[in-house]
Specification:
Helix content is 61%, strand content 14%. The strands form 2 sheets. It has a 5-stranded antiparallel beta sheet with strand order 5-9-8-7-6, sandwiched between helices. A 4-stranded antiparallel beta sheet has the order 2-1-3-4. Strand 8 and strand 9 form a beta hairpin. Helix 3 runs antiparallel to helix 4 and helix 6 runs antiparallel to helix 8. The protein is elongated.
Length: 330
């Protein structure tokens, strides 16, 4: 006991002596040993320390120096916090716009339907142009056939007109394909708005569901490799031959097309091979057309034709879709 008191007294004496000499520091080394000194050794300068008063009371604590890894981690956390705050602010701003724009779920659905209908109008204009192109192509082909039957060569101008008309048909179908995709994007965007509106208003979902936003575009099949596209193109040709009721008008590496319908229950089909913009994929876009008559238009809107579009998607793209789903699962 006396030895312990003696040691403590000596320690206090050292502290008092150092305190009178100037600033006093207390720190622990890497082994946990406590040190008192008026100077911090260079090898311990990064250790946490306390500055002591003349009475041996800590007046200021200096934390240990942070490592480069700790500094980098703190900077990254700060960046993530700032990004989180930015996203929160963006969401709050979007919520305010959503609530100012729409008063009810029906308002959102009407706005969605209006945008989709506007795209459908442009698609119908494109389809009308395609009907004109098909008629023009049939006229050119008939003239070429007449020349061939009479033993005359088909002139270059007629061949150029046929080629130009085919390109116009393909380009127009490419535009329709893009608009079909934009319709799906509009539906998906409005579905998100509708879900968020319900959350903000604490509403229970109505009969409306997301199924129509989730469903695929049935007349659009994608393939990514030459082998898969070749196989899908062969399946597309078989589909057209099996289901179209009008004669084959054009069969090439880029377009499969049957003639325009003549009777009310005729069914014409065209499949175009369209390179996807900004990707390596190819789109096989299928179009079904009926006679331009009240009965023909009604026939094209029937459940049978809707089922035929799903048949196309399953028959031509089913294997590709299954492969993509399997790849995604892996």
């Amino acid at each position: 006991m006396r030895s312990l008191l003696y040691t403590f007294s000596i320690l206090l004496l050292c502290v008092a002596t150092l305190a009178t000499a100037g600033k006093l520091y207390r720190w622990e080394d890497e082994h946990g040993n406590v040190h008192y000194s008026d100077k911090i050794p260079p090898q311990h300068i990064k250790q946490a320390r306390d500055e002591m008063s003349e009475k041996g009371v800590a007046t200021r604590s200096v934390p240990r120096a942070k490592t480069a890894e700790e500094i980098a981690r703190e900077q990254e956390l700060e960046r993530l916090r700032a990004e989180q705050q930015r996203l929160i602010a963006e969401q709050q701003a979007a919520d305010r716009v959503l609530l100012r724009t729409f008063r009810s779920e029906d308002d959102i659905i009407l706005a969605r339907n209006g945008k989709i209908e506007a795209i459908d109008v442009m698609i119908r204009v494109s389809q009308s142009n395609i009907r004109r192109y098909r008629a023009r192509l049939a006229d050119y082909q008939a003239k070429a056939a007449t020349l061939e039957r009479s033993g005359k060569a088909v002139n270059q101008r007629l061949l150029a007109n046929i080629d130009s008309t085919l390109r116009s048909i393909n380009d127009t179908y490419a535009g329709i394909s893009e608009r079909e995709k934009s319709k799906k994007e509009v539906a998906e965007a409005f579905a998100k708005d509708l879900d968020r509106f319900r959350e903000l208003k604490r509403l229970e979902p109505k009969a409306y569901t997301k199924e129509q936003e989730r469903r695929p575009i049935l007349n659009l099949v994608k393939c990514a490799t030459p082998e898969s596209c070749k196989a899908a193109w062969a399946r597309a040709e078989a589909f057209v031959v099996e289901n179209a009721t009008t004669r084959m008008q054009m069969l090439s590496d880029t377009i499969i097309m049957t003639a325009a319908p003549v009777k009310d229950d005729d069914l014409g089909i065209t499949v175009s091979r369209i390179p996807e913009r900004d990707t390596d994929e190819t789109i096989l876009f299928m179009d079904i057309y009926c006679k331009e008559s009240p009965i023909g238009r009604e026939y094209c809107e029937s459940d049978n034709i809707k089922a035929l579009r799903r048949t196309y998607w399953e028959q031509v793209g089913g294997e590709l879709v299954a492969h993509r789903e399997q790849s995604g699962a892996e």
